[in-house]
Amino acid sequence: MSTTSVNRISGMVSGLDTDSLVKKLMAAESVNLIKSKQKLQTLTWQSDGYRQWNTDMFSFRTNTLFNMKLSKSYDTFATTTSDSNSLSGIASSDVIEGTYSYKVTNLAQSATMKSNVDIDTTKALTDTATSITIKATNSTGTQVSADIAVAKTDTITDVLAKINSAKDSSGNSLGVKAVYDSSLKQFIVKTKDTGSLTKLTINATPDKVPPTPESTASFVAGQALLDSTLGFNNSADGDYSNGFSKVSAAYVTVQRTSATRVPDTNVTTNPNYVKGSSGLVKMNTPSDATDGASITVDGTAFNIAAALQKDWTGKSLTDVVNSLKSVTSGTTKLSDLVDISTNGTDISFKSKSTGPSSSIAISAGTGTLKDAVANLFSVDIASHAATDLGNFVGTGVTDPNNPNVAQDAKINFNGTNLTSTSNSLKILGVNYTLKNVNATAQTVTITKDIDAEVKNITDFVSKYNDMLSKINTAVNETVYKDYQPLTDDQRTAMSETQITAWETKAKSGLFNNDSILKQLATKIRNDMTSKVDNGSTYNSLASIGINSTSYADKGKLYVDETKLRAAIQADPDAVKSLFSQTSTDTTSNAKQGVVSRLYDDFQSAMTKLVSKAGSSSNAPTDQSFVGKLLTQTNTFISTETDRLNAKEKNYYAKFTAMETAMNKYNSQSAYLTQNSSSQ
């Protein structure tokens, strides 16, 4: 038994089996130690079992009971729409029943860039290391940006991974998703947020100032990557926003044909041009040549007379554009509010503001050469009243060449126009999801969903029955007194199957007649069958069709769904209060609903379990009743083990002394015998 080194002479003289004798002597001495180890094992099983009970009760209380305290378990409603393809809804407990009209006019969209391009996914995208800059604006208008380094070895898969994991300098995600579909041959980048405030811009990371040969090469490679390799080839300066061209959610442009003004009703948000004439003329004489010529952008007027009153002979439209860009109104530049550009034959004006409030108004003025001003913008003044070349207002129409522009969701609900940055919104207690635009008004009907409430209640009763059955089984489980925890010697002599079978019986009845569990079972059975003071005849579970059918069921409840449905239809508020009603009365639980009572019952039982067996979180310093017994038993085992080791050592010492004495006696006897023989 002892591991201590002892000088032993084991039966060499006496012929006795000393080890066997000592083992038998120690077996008698070890009875208390064996019983203590078995007690320790039983206490450990009980401690673990109590803590598992605590865990199970906590789960039942925080999930099943807590959910049944909430209104959503009883205030259940169904949402039915006349067009399920355009809208769906999930009603919450604060919904208002009724039938409502709706019409979805816009779905919320993210800022999206998409190109049709065939990319070899196995090859590098660029021969020169480069970088692209992505700027993304979320639904709240917050912009983040990041530079994406593209190595010479990067494939489209590598670049996609870099874009999707990109963060700005503060560690904020860009909030974009990039994909390439080799089947569709489409490269797509889009913001994860939706709504008109979302924006997306990608361009080649600007060259260094001053530039170096390497930085310039990188910049050129970045432009080529975006323009050709990734298929965004509609922008001359390599700045791609929400699609191929530099557009925003909605914008306004001035539009003309070669010689005839297009009617205002035809103005759209397409990139439209003011056509130039076949040649430019002198406009610097007489002195009043361009008097009154102006451009008004979003209400800010710019006098362009001086910018136009020049000799344009031999000049190009680029010179005219540059002159217009320099025009100011106070401290505001015309180019701050409107993009002015030319492709060599046309002049294009495009407002930087968006939406229906965007506007551009152009006047040829009253000067001597007002016809020349009009001709510069390809307008036939003779067909136009006065000198005003027209007001052009942003319509908010999506650019047909760029159908993926960011926009808000819009719905007319029961006569009220609503806007949302996403396709999910809550109206009158219903969480709606907009799916498609519908051409005509539809209806959505909210009705009481009795089936859902019946299911919630029957599910609760089933889980209650399971918990009660588990408690009843534990407190009535058979105790097998002849099956104590196995000793080490017993375990060594048995197979795994035998050990499992033995320990199953040894663990049986650990909680037989346990006071905490018995009290809990009695309490919850009483609380589930007692009446609730809720001011209704539906004041007990039995009154709504929930009760036991036999004493032998030990409190198990059965649900009569027909009777339950009738009670819900007759008085839904009473059924709800029967379960979930709360009360501040600390002297009686008569006004508490049955679920509220159970909620308190299980909390009380859990507190008692912690007091008796502790919790897993405080195991090292467990001061519970069982915890203290474990500590005491461990202390006794340690002390008893030391005593037995000393006892065993003492036995061996005595046998060794006996062997030594017998050996000495034998030696002396042999000596005497030898001397006697010699005489």
Automatic annotation (TrEMBL):
InterPro entries: FliD, FliD_C, FliD_N. Coiled coil: none annotated. It is found in: Secreted; Bacterial flagellum. Residues 14-110 form the Flagellar hook-associated protein 2 N-terminal domain. Residues 406-667 form the Flagellar hook-associated protein 2 C-terminal domain. GO terms for biological process: bacterial-type flagellum-dependent cell motility; cell adhesion. GO terms for cellular component: bacterial-type flagellum filament cap; bacterial-type flagellum hook; extracellular region. Keywords: Bacterial flagellum, Coiled coil, Secreted. The keyword Ion transport does not apply. Belongs to the FliD family. PANTHER family: FLAGELLAR CAP/ASSEMBLY PROTEIN FLID, FLAGELLAR HOOK-ASSOCIATED PROTEIN 2. Homopentamer. Required for morphogenesis and for the elongation of the flagellar filament by facilitating polymerization of the flagellin monomers at the tip of growing filament. Forms a capping structure, which prevents flagellin subunits (transported through the central channel of the flagellum) from leaking out without polymerization at the distal end. This is Flagellar hook-associated protein 2.
